[in-house]
Automatic annotation (TrEMBL):
The chain crosses the membrane at residues 39-65, 71-91, 103-122, 210-232, 289-308, 328-351, 363-391, 403-423, 429-451. Keywords: Membrane, Transmembrane, Transmembrane helix. The lineage of its organism: Eukaryota, Fungi, Fungi incertae sedis, Chytridiomycota, Chytridiomycota incertae sedis. InterPro entries: MFS_ArsJ (IPR047769), MFS_trans_sf (IPR036259). NCBIfam families: MFS_ArsJ. Signal peptide: none annotated. It comes from Spizellomyces punctatus (strain DAOM BR117). It comes from the Eukaryota. This is Major facilitator transporter.
Length: 460
């Protein structure tokens, strides 16, 4: 995959790139290279982290399911992961604006090492004598470190795209919108790697066991640390405005960021209502798959999702005459389409829920595979446009704070979806999870109808 530059190609140009608090001693001729170097270093750290984070999620999920933990127990174990994400995004944005993106990225990688290291205890023989409540509590504690880590790293990754472009008012080039392309590339690459992480985690827990699987994760997390420390500008992302923030300023980011963040809660809640907990367990139970097969299914889904995010600006929205994407209300079309697809999947699972699986195993697998592939495509377009809108709406000098607040909403949606997923799947079934997802998407659609165009938001 070619790395993008700001004119939408894979080659370097002489376009000037603006960045917050650039060192005055830098050679102006090399400022473009220095800025893109910062972006590439952050992107590498973000992608390596994503690989380990998703692999660890599979290792924990399948490792505990193998030990006869129920779906609700496993969902509770991930509560701290998502809850810490809410808190980290809310205050991590403030941290990033004061201490810089390098600090956030380094802290995130170090916290991930702590979270993974704590899980080694689960491989000890005496842990088999612990009660399920004790194991659940311990994993909740360990996952809290990974939850905080994930959103510190994501904050750095998403903020870097805005800082590596010109100011929003001057984002007109022959190649369209370079900001959208940069956001789409990073988000798509991250999600493709996320799919690979699902597969690696499932294969490792299946063939190598818990201890060796976690050791591989520790080594992969260590890889980007030297580059981040040595090559990343320590002042990147620091806001010029260092005044104290009031409680209202922390939570009120203006109409556009607030509305987008609220829509994000329901968009990602709709996915995690069935994807993170219910789907992998349902696949194993319904089709007698091993960990590798279940992980491969999830990996393919995520890779499709990531690939679509990467090509959304140029190959999906442009042919539909929606690119450059300035009319934000056009996103309603994509949320409605996503809701229709979800209704179709839910309706099928409702119709066959009381029939013997042996009578329709092949048909169910085919329909679910096709339905989820189409869902992945449309969800990826929605997510890609969301990721663009937050960096387009956000004030450039306070990008870390605004992006942090937005991903606080993202984590809140994942937290809600994960909890509801575990409860509904255990007591009602996956079909109820997906019908609830339909409700979330209906709310998301209504909120999206009130989005303002990008140019209107930037001229406020």
């Amino acid at each position: 995959m070619d790395l993008p530059t700001l004119n939408g190609t894979s080659s370097r140009t002489s376009d000037t790139v603006q960045i917050v608090d650039v060192e005055p001693t830098r050679n102006p001729a090399s400022s473009d290279n220095a800025t893109m170097k910062d972006f590439y270093v952050i992107a590498a750290g973000y992608i390596f982290f994503t690989l380990t984070d998703t692999a660890v999620r599979m290792i924990v999920l399948f490792g505990l399911w193998q030990r006869h933990f129920q779906a609700l127990n496993i969902a509770i174990m991930f509560v701290s992961y998502e809850a810490l994400g809410v808190v980290t995004n809310l205050f991590g944005g403030i941290m990033g604006s004061r201490l810089g993106l390098r600090f956030c990225l380094l802290l995130g990688l170090l916290l991930q090492l702590v979270g993974i290291s704590l899980l080694f205890v689960l491989d000890r023989e005496d842990v088999s004598h612990w009660s399920q409540a004790a194991v659940t509590g311990y994993v909740v504690f360990a996952q809290s470190f990974s939850g905080a880590a994930k959103d510190l790293v994501k904050l750095a990754g998403k903020s870097s795209t805005k800082l590596a472009t010109k100011a929003a008012k001057n984002r007109k080039t022959n190649a369209g919108d370079p900001l959208f392309k940069l956001v789409a590339w990073l988000t798509g690459a991250k999600n493709s790697v996320k799919g690979l992480g699902f597969l690696i985690g499932a294969v490792l827990i299946n063939y190598a066991g818990l201890w060796r699987a976690l050791l591989v994760m520790v080594l992969l997390t260590l890889l980007p640390l030297p580059g981040v420390w040595m090559w990343l500008d320590p002042r990147l992302g620091i806001s010029k405005d260092q005044q104290r923030l009031t409680l209202r300023e922390i939570f009120d980011k203006g109409r556009d960021v607030n509305m987008l963040s609220l829509a994000r809660v329901f968009l990602f809640g709709s996915r995690d209502l069935w994807f993170e907990i219910a789907l992998p367990i349902w696949l194993r139970a319904q089709f007698d798959w091993n960990f590798t097969a279940s992980g491969a299914f999830l990996a393919v889904w995520i890779i499709i999702y990531g690939a679509v995010q990467t090509i959304t600006p140029q190959y999906i929205l442009k042919p539909l005459k929606m690119y450059p994407f300035k009319r934000a209300k056009l996103l309603v079309i994509w949320t409605v389409l996503l809701m229709i697809i979800t209704i179709a999947i839910a309706a099928y699972l409702t119709a066959v829920r009381n029939k013997p699986i042996s009578d329709q195993k092949a048909a169910t697998l085919s329909i679910i595979s096709i339905g989820l592939a189409v869902f992945a495509f449309v969800f990826a377009v929605n997510s890609s446009i969301h990721s663009y809108l937050i960096v387009a709406y956000a004030a450039k000098d306070k990008i870390a704070i605004n992006v942090g607040f937005y991903y606080c909403a993202n984590a809140l949606g994942r937290l809600t979806g994960t909890l509801l997923s575990g409860f509904m799947f255990q007591y009602y079934g996956i079909w109820v999870c997906i019908w609830t997802s339909v409700g979330f998407l209906a709310i998301c659609t209504v909120i999206t109808a009130f989005f303002r165009d990008v140019k209107d938001a930037n001229t406020e």
